[in-house]
């Protein structure tokens, strides 16, 4: 019997006998590569293991066919007694092993899969923290990775070894977020990543491990694998609602709700079609799982569900979503749009900017999608006629026909000038939108038999026509206006307003029993910018009044801007332009015209509303709210303009008065100067006359007299016309002379005090100081004369 057979049979006496006879049997291997020590460890034969370890030549570094040492096998077998025995023996040889070159300590030896004894302990059947602690005390490294990049902590997390994982997490230097070679962290492994190949029997233990990991500060919940996915993503992929609930209960959602790729967990769940998981995510705080959140591709969870045609998930997300249909409308994605609309998405839902899907589709010029949305009863309100044309690439010479059936479905067509037709009265309502006068000339309202011509509006006048047919079956209505015409204030400073003709027309079909069925309008013709079908004739007229109100407000806004330019012009001219006063007076006249035109239009509109209600049997009191609002808003603007013009007139009048006063004052000053000059000139002229009169006929006397008179007269005229300049020049001369005199006063010991006092006095202010300066000049002149006389006397005495 060989030694391996003896160990399998548990015969310690046979083993001892074989070892005594041939010590070579101590490290011999069987067919599987096991040494006697490995086999005894696997069989749990404690006495035989003790016997073998007592042998001096026992090889503790021996590896089996898989690269496992006896220590690794003991760790995986979970036999405490044998494991402690091996470790105690290992302590004795540890010092010897550590002193050998190229010998790695056995406790960290790796098998052919790269796994250490600590890793074997982590995925063993038991959850033995004490045995793990013994390995750690012997220097086992918890951060060593196997061939797949997993650590002992990773194995413990994946296999749900809570006690071992908890012990490893307490070790200094352990890295809980290290990625294995598949890119998973230990939290991902425990949570059940797709690459981790989670086994159902580990699920309960994994839950305990995940719960432990989520309580650790070292764990990065938002850590991502190589594909940018978090642990929470793997949970969503595995549809593990129990694990997700664990994350929620631990408040561990946070930034892990979205990976670096921008895919939210909700979008992943929606894409996979897991309605239970979607429902659970929607119950969470929406800052983490908002259904409107978009990934890096700009897609929402509902977008993914619609693309994958997960009808149940679509029905769950539609009440929570507010952006996906708008995204599809902007993209022009007709197929997915129909998927959402068929599932019950509100075709008229507004986004955060108040836009409906059809408005978005019109702006992006997706004509086919626009027709689809109209088919699903999209509301066309607030879309203009020009936007309809732009969406389909049509020109203004074509009329836009918007037709609506009784079930509220609609469609658009574009027709030429001669293509107007009457829709089916009972089943359809049409609005024809026209942009050119040439199209309006072909409108079949009123009946050509009616000898009236209301289609040619007068400038600035609201014209209306109610033309019933001879049998009383219907009434044709036309409202026209050519406005504004020659009304703008201050046109010389800005571009004039567009002069446009605006008209609407419709037909009222009278009911045979108006008390039961009200009259209806099957067709509308409009030159207004609005592109939706009105509710009835009253609503149509309200559109007209609203447009008229906009024209008035635009006119008043431009007028106010022009008057601001008037104000700047007034400030620059400073009351020196008589023409400005005339222009302001013209502006005041136009304000009065505006008020008269407004009153006429309000009166005509009020009369039309009253007549319409009476003749069309609406059985309703006249609704004048729109007309009154139009009157109030425009009238207040005109009042403001009128006040601005009055203020400008008052300022201009005051400024002109000041300017005229200054001119009169200057003229008076010139006259005064002329008077002063005349005072000196007349005596001179009188003397000259006396001198020249005796010999006035003598040419030698007359010629100098005439020349002298002309020169004096020219000087007088020049001084009168340049009084300000002369006065200014004289003032500068006096100022320079005064500075020199004051300087001399300060240098004179008798006048020094006065000089210091008068050097800073304003020279343009009349003051007694100027007389002191004159006194100094006179005294200095007198002293100069006396000094000269004294020097002359001294000179004579010396001679």
Automatic annotation (TrEMBL):
Keyword tags: ANK repeat, Membrane, Repeat, Transmembrane, Transmembrane helix
Instruction: Give residue ranges of the ANK repeats.
Output: 32-54, 113-147, 320-352
Membrane among keywords: yes
* Major enzyme class: transferase
Q: What's a Pfam family this protein contains?
A: Ank_4
Q: Which InterPro entries match?
A: Ankyrin_rpt, Ankyrin_rpt-contain_sf
Show the stretches that span the lipid bilayer: 671-693, 705-723
**Is S-adenosyl-L-methionine found in the keyword set?**
no
What EC number(s) does its UniProt record assign?
Answer: 2.3.1.225
| Protein's name according to its UniProt entry | protein S-acyltransferase
Name the source organism.
Xylaria multiplex
């Amino acid at each position: 019997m060989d030694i391996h057979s003896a160990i399998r049979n548990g015969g310690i006496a046979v083993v001892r006998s074989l070892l005594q006879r041939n010590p070579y049997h101590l490290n011999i291997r069987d067919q599987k590569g096991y040494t006697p020590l490995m086999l005894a460890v696997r069989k749990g034969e404690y006495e035989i293991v003790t016997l073998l370890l007592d042998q001096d030549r026992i090889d503790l570094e021996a590896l089996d066919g898989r690269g496992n040492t006896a220590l690794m096998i003991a760790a995986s077998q979970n036999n405490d007694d044998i494991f402690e025995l091996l470790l105690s023996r290992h302590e004795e040889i540890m010092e010897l092993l550590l002193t050998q070159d190229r010998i790695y300590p056995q406790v960290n030896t790796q098998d052919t899969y790269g796994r250490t004894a600590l890793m074997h302990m982590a995925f063993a059947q038991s959850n033995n923290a004490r045995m793990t602690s013994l390995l750690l005390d012997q220097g086992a490294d918890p951060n060593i990775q196997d061939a797949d990049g997993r650590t002992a902590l990773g194995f413990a997390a994946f296999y749900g070894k809570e006690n071992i994982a908890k012990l490893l997490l307490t070790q200094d230097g352990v890295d809980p977020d290290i990625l294995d070679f598949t890119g998973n962290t230990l939290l991902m492994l425990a949570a059940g990543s797709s690459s981790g190949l989670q086994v159902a029997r580990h699920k309960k233990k994994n839950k305990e491990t995940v719960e432990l990991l989520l309580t650790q500060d070292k764990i990065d919940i938002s850590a991502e694998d190589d594909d940018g996915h978090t642990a929470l993503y793997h949970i969503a992929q595995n549809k593990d609602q129990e694990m997700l609930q664990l994350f929620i209960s631990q408040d561990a959602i946070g930034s892990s709700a979205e990976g670096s790729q921008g895919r939210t967990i909700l979008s992943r769940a929606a894409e996979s079609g897991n309605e239970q998981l979607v429902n659970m995510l929607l119950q969470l705080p929406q800052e983490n799982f908002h259904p409107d959140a978009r990934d890096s591709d700009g897609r929402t969870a509902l977008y993914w569900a619609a693309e994958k045609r997960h009808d149940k998930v679509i029905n769950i997300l539609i009440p929570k979503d507010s952006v996906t249909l708008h995204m599809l409308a902007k993209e022009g994605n007709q197929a997915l749009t129909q998927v959402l609309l068929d599932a019950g998405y509100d075709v008229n839902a507004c986004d955060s900017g108040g836009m409906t899907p059809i408005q978005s589709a019109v702006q992006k010029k997706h004509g086919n999608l626009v027709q689809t949305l109209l088919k699903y009863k999209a509301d066309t309100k607030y879309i203009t006629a020009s936007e309809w044309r732009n969406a389909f690439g049509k020109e203004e010479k074509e009329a836009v026909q918007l037709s609506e059936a009784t079930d509220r479905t609609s469609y658009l067509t574009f027709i030429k000038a001669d293509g107007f037709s009457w829709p089916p009265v009972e089943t359809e309502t049409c609005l024809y939108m026209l942009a050119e006068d040439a199209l309006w000339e072909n409108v079949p309202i009123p009946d050509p038999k009616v000898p009236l011509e209301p289609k040619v509006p007068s400038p600035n006048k609201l014209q209306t026509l109610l033309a019933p047919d001879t049998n009383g079956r219907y009434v044709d209505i036309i409202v026209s206006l050519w406005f504004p015409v020659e009304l703008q204030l201050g046109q010389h400073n800005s571009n004039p307003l567009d002069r446009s003709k605006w008209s609407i027309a419709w037909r009222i079909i009278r009911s045979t029993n108006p008390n039961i069925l009200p009259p209806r309008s099957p067709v509308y013709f409009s030159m207004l910018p609005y592109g939706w079908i009105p509710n009835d004739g009253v609503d149509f007229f309200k559109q007209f009044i609203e447009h008229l109100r906009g024209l008035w407000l635009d006119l008043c806004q431009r007028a106010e801007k022009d008057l601001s330019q008037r104000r700047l012009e007034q400030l620059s001219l400073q009351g020196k332009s008589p023409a400005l006063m005339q222009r302001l007076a013209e502006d005041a006249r136009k304000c009065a015209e505006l008020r008269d035109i407004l009153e006429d239009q309000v009166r005509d509109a009020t009369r039309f509303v009253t007549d319409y209600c009476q003749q069309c049997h609406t059985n309703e009191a006249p609704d004048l709210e729109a007309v009154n609002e139009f009157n109030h808003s425009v009238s207040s603007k005109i009042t403001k303009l009128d006040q601005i013009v009055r203020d400008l007139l008052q300022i201009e009048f005051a400024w002109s008065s000041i300017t005229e006063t200054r001119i009169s004052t200057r003229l008076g000053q010139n006259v005064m100067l002329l008077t002063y000059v005349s005072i000196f000139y007349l005596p001179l002229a009188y003397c000259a006359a006396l001198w020249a009169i005796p010999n006035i006929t003598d040419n030698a006397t007359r010629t100098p007299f005439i020349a002298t008179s002309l020169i004096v007269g020219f000087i007088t005229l020049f001084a009168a016309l340049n009084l300000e300049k002369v006065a200014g020049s004289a003032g500068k001369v006096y100022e320079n002379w005064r500075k020199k005199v004051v300087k001399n006063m300060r240098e004179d010991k008798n006048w020094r005090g006065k000089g210091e006092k008068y050097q800073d006095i304003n020279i343009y202010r009349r003051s007694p100081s100027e007389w002191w300066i004159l006194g100094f000049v006179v005294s200095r002149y007198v002293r100069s004369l006396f000094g000269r006389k004294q020097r002359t006397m001294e000179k004579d005495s010396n001679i």
